[in-house]
Every structure is written in C-alpha cells, then in structure tokens.
Write a structure and sequence with these properties.
This protein is α+β, with helices and mostly antiparallel strands. It has 19 helices and 19 strands. The protein has 2 domains: 9-449, Amidase signature (AS) enzymes, CATH 3.90.1300.10; 476-600, Gamma-glutamyl cyclotransferase-like (Hypothetical upf0131 protein ytfp, Roll). Helix content is 30%, strand content 16%. The strands form 3 sheets. The chain has an 11-stranded mixed sheet with strand order 1-3-2-4-6-5-10-11-9-7-8, with helices on both faces. A 5-stranded mixed sheet has the order 13-16-12-18-17. Strand 14 (511-515) and strand 15 form a beta hairpin. Helix 2 packs antiparallel against helix 3.
C-alpha cells in the first residue's frame, strides 16, 4: 500500500484502513524530505528512529479515539517541543525546553506524529519568509517567488507533501500569506481560543497559533483538536469552538472590497484571479456580495508597524536584543529596534486611535457577516527583497495586518489559479467566534475553485463527511419559524447554546401562522390544521446537543410549546407550536408564507 502523494488526513486514514503502516509513512516522509533538497524547510528534525518508535506506540489503527492517528505534522520553530531546540530563527537565542506547548500536546495525544520544527522569519517578524540566518525555504510552486512568512517552513512543508499539516503562528498574517503563496489553507483562529503557552511571543496581545493544511476541512479538524481554554495562559479565553454549520445560513451577508479597496499594485493577473473567485462566491452564496469601504481597516493596519505595537515586539525579546543586538537579522533588528523611538504616551495614543478605528469598522459588520478579500495583492519575487527588504513585506500584509488588532478570525483559502499558473487565494474574515462559519463557507469556495493540493498536482479530494444538513450523533433537530430564525432577535438563544444550522425547508401545507400579541420581540404562533387546509410556512432546522436542547426548551414561554413538525423534505423534527388558547388577539398571517415575509411587509417591529 503506497503512501499517498499528498498525505491528507482523509487519504492517509483510508490507506491505513487498507493496511498501510505508520512505520512505512515515517520512512517515506524521511525519503521525501531528503529528495526535496531544501535545507531551509526544517531547522530541527525528530530522529527517524524516534519517529518509528512513536509510530509503533500508536497501537492498532483507531481514528475514533485518536483522530490524528499516524498523521505526520510539523511545528514552527518558535513553538516549544520538549527536547528539541527552540531558536525562533536566531541561533544565539536558542534554548531547549523541558515542556511541550499545550497545543502541541493535544495533537500528539490525538495520535499525530511530529516530524520536526520549521524555519521562519526571525522572531516571527515578517511576511516574506526570507528574514532568516538559515537557508531560505523555497516557495513550493515557484522558487523565484518568496515563500511567505513568517511561517515559511511550515507552509512549504505542507505544500510539498512532507507533512499532512503544520502549525504556524499569526500576528500580522503569518498564518495566511504563506498559505496563499503556496496553494494551501491557512486557518487563523479567534484570539485566545488556542493556548499560547510555550510559544515565543511576537506581539503577545495579538499572537495566535495557526494551522496549515491542504483543505479547509482538515485545517478545521486540527484546530478543533488543539483549541481549548488554558488557565495558565493569561491571554487564553474561554471561547468554545463554534460549531460548523451543516449548511450556509440563509441570507448570509458577504462583503468584498469596493473599488478603492482592491489593491493589486498593477498586477492584472491577480486582479483577474480575484474576479474569478468572486464569481465562485456568487455561485456558492446564491446572491451578490456587498462592496464595503476598507479605509478604516487599512488605517488599523498602519498602526501595527508604524504605531507603538512594534514596541510590543521589542518587549517580547527585550533582554535578548539589549544584550545581543548583533545577533539579530539586520532587517529584523531595524524593525524591532525602531521601538525605542516610541514612548509610553505613544502607546496610549495608539490604543485610543485603535478604539476610534474599531468603532468605525463596527458599521461595516452591521451590514455583513463575512468579509472576503484577496489573501495578498500580488506575489513578490525573492529578488525584490534584495532591492527593498521592507516594501514588498508591507504590500503582502495589505489584507492581513488589521485582523488581529480588530480581534477578528480569518481563513485563507486557495482560489482561482492566475493565468501564469501561480496560485491566488482569498481570505475570509469575520468577528471573533465565527470560525465555524468561515470553515463552512471556505470549504465550499475551495471546492468551487477546484484546483490541486499544494505543489503536488493532486486534485482536491471529495471529503468523506457526514451529510451536513442532518443532525449527527446525539444531536436533536429543532425547527424554528419566528424570532429564532437566522439574523432575527432571538437567534442568539440557539447560537449561544452551540446551535448548528442545518437547513432551510418549509413545513407541509398543514399549518397556519399567527402574529401573537405582545413583545418585543414580536413572535408568531404556529398551529397545525387539517391536512392540506393550511399553508407551507418558512422554517429553519437547527441542531442542538441534548443538554443544550433541554436548556433551550426550559426557557420557552406560554403560549408557545415544543411539538413535532412535518416538513416538506419528509423530516419530522421537534419545533415550535402554539397553544390554541393563546391565539386570542392574534392575527392570521399565513398568507405571507412565513415570519420573514410578514416582517418585510412592515406591520411588526
């Protein structure tokens, strides 16, 4: 049984189920790394004998209790792994930790096999991937193009099929730009959802671990395994990983840059590729996207390096840079050293300015749920950096630098290939906590674009996944017809309990809908009538875990109750009904066909 050319989680587990051994995978990964002939990818390797021992210690194939059983991965070399040196791409800074970062421990416990630690822009400062005293990793698609940073080695390792997934870090786009430049997925989660303990900080208040993988589905799976609250990390937040919806919520509002926000530096190939991505987006969401003004977002981005946040990078390595300034890469030293020109008063001025700009961006989020932008304006050549080590880096961060300052989550997804054959990509951005929604939309966009995995030429696999529009496991389906519909005032009672949107489907024509007196919020009441004597009423079906379902039902006020609804797709989920005695003073609005249509007609508030 051969090792898959691109060892994605799904294909690798399928091969394991057919008899492939993890020992054979370890041997093949070692061979591929040697054949790659790129000394810039890994800065430290787990010895093959140690990896073989870990493979033998996995026991029988068990993807249930160990969902990453036998899956090879790598971590960026600013993330601690016990026994392997952490250099942050600065040899004089190197130390050998005694403990492994908690996020990595979670992956190892899930059965993943660590291959080694990867190269980066020194101290995670850069988006180009060439600011390292070690050999520069070669872009997996075209070695003349920068690999992207700072997580350069991690992205290249995935794109070349040397590992299934890799961890990076992301402060200003380091988990997204390298993904876009190497034709893979880069997942930047909500800040604080993954423990940052055991990571050399860049800007501690903005840092997060990130995931590189071939597909959105696999990056999302890895994220869900390593996420979790860490009380020993002062920047960890109790953010439950949001459920990934089984379908896109109806009426999903997607924003894209307006004409002034489309920045490609004159590169028509990138502009054309983004136009193709927008066509895919229209197909996926079934409606036109909204053009939005990105000016306040770009103003936030300017604060990251032109403002006092560069002082946070200085603070992260203050003792080292003051004692060993000559040990830093010249560009890194120039950037971080500029922090000495900022005062404490400048820091507060920056915070005030950020608060003003954050308020300005809130107006955008009131009109959209997701923002879709190019991952980078245009690919930049390694030769460009010799002439200008800063300008191309700033350009690559055009659509990434503002994200963490605004506490947003993001997902970089391969999209249409440029006419010259080089990959392009889009990045999906949303407010903190919308990680699951980004994964669902991102997976659909990646599928719509087609394409291949990294540099392998292997087509994107048809993901073996359960039907997304039905409850899974012990989930309970609940149908809603009124104020709990997506985007309406009480929808938070579902999403706040981990509700997962499944599908939009009307009832059978056996119901009548009434606008109940009282409120706010205004509510309808659904009554079942004789078969065929009513109307089909708009409904949405959501999934809740049993305990969440119980808490949800406990809060339902009279005259509403939970019964069993009959839907047009033949399913019979639990759903809202009204007691007949509660219809006194109510208005029959069945002719509208649903609560949204009734609200649109203007009589309710």
């Amino acid at each position: 049984m051969p090792v898959p050319a691109f060892p994605s989680l799904s294909t690798l587990h399928a091969a394991y189920a057919e008899g492939l051994s993890p020992e054979a995978v370890v041997a093949e990964i070692d061979r591929r790394i040697a054949a790659a002939d790129d000394p810039g990818i890994f800065l430290a390797r787990v010895p093959e004998a140690q990896m073989q021992a870990a493979a033998r210690g996995l026991g029988p194939f068990d993807p249930v209790s160990k969902p990453l059983w036998g899956v090879p991965f790598a971590v960026k070399d600013n993330i601690d792994v016990a026994g392997l040196p952490t250099t942050a791409a600065c040899p004089d800074f190197a130390y050998t930790p005694q403990a492994t970062a908690p996020a990595v421990e979670r992956l190892l416990a899930a059965g993943a096999l660590l291959v080694g630690k990867t190269n980066l822009d020194q101290f995670a400062t850069g988006l180009v991937g060439v600011r390292t005293p070690y050999p520069v990793p070669k872009n997996a698609i075209d070695p003349a193009i920068v690999p992207g940073g700072s997580s350069s080695g991690s992205a290249v390792a995935v794109a070349r099929g040397l590992v299934t997934f890799a961890l990076g870090t992301d402060t200003a786009g380091s988990g997204r730009v390298p993904a876009g430049l190497n034709n893979i997925v880069g997942l930047k989660p909500s800040l604080g959802s993954v423990s940052g303990r055991g990571v050399v900080p860049a800007c501690r208040t903005l840092d997060t671990l990130s995931v590189f993988a071939g597909t959105v589905t696999e990056a999302d799976a890895v994220y869900r395994i390593m996420a979790g609250y860490d009380p020993q990390d002062p920047y960890s937040r109790a953010l439950p990983v949001p459920p990934r919806p089984g379908s896109l919520p109806p009426g999903l509002r997607v924003g894209v840059p307006d004409a002034a926000g489309l920045i490609f530096a004159g590169d028509t190939l990138s502009a054309d590729a983004f136009d193709g991505a927008l066509a895919d987006l229209h197909t996926v969401i079934g409606s036109a996207a909204t053009a939005v003004d990105l000016a306040p977002f770009f103003a936030v981005a300017e604060l990251l390096y032109a403002g006092p946040w560069v002082a946070e990078r200085y603070q992260a390595i203050r003792g080292f840079i003051e004692a060993h300034p000559e040990a830093l890469h010249p560009t890194t030293r120039a950037i971080i050293g500029a922090a000495t020109g900022h005062s404490a008063a400048d820091a507060f001025a920056g915070l005030y300015r950020l608060a003003e700009l954050r308020r300005a961006t809130e107006a955008v989020w009131r009109g959209i749920d997701v923002l879709v932008v190019p991952t980078y304006p245009r690919p930049r050549r390694v030769a460009d950096l010799a002439a200008d080590p800063v300008g191309p880096n700033s350009e690559l961060g055009t659509y990434t630098n503002f994200v963490n300052l605004l506490d947003l989550c993001a997902l970089a997804v391969p999209s249409r290939v440029r006419a010259d054959g080089f990959p392009s990509g889009v990045t999906l951005i949303a407010p903190r906590g919308a990680d699951g929604l980004l994964a669902e939309l991102g997976a659909r966009l990646q599928a719509a674009a087609g394409g291949t995995l990294g540099a392998s030429g292997v087509p994107i696999p048809a993901e073996a996944a359960p039907r997304g529009d039905r409850a899974q496991g012990d989930e309970i389906e609940i149908a809603v017809v009124g104020a709990h519909l997506s985007g309406l005032p009480l929808n938070g009672e579902l999403t706040g309990r981990g509700g997962r949107f499944l599908r939009a489907v009307p009832t059978t024509p056996d119901y009548r809908l009434h606008a109940l007196p009282g409120g706010p919020p205004a509510r309808p009441g659904l009554i079942r009538v004789a078969p065929g004597s009513g109307h089909a009423i708009e409904a949405e079906v959501w999934a809740l875990a049993p305990d969440a379902f119980g808490r949800f039902v406990a809060g339902i006020p009279a005259p509403l109750a939970i019964g069993t609804l009959s839907l047009a797709d033949g399913t019979t989920p639990k759903g809202f009904l009204a007691e007949a005695a509660g219809l006194t003073g109510a208005r029959d609005i069945s002719d509208h066909g649903g609560w949204r249509a009734y609200l649109a007609s203007g009589p309710a508030t």
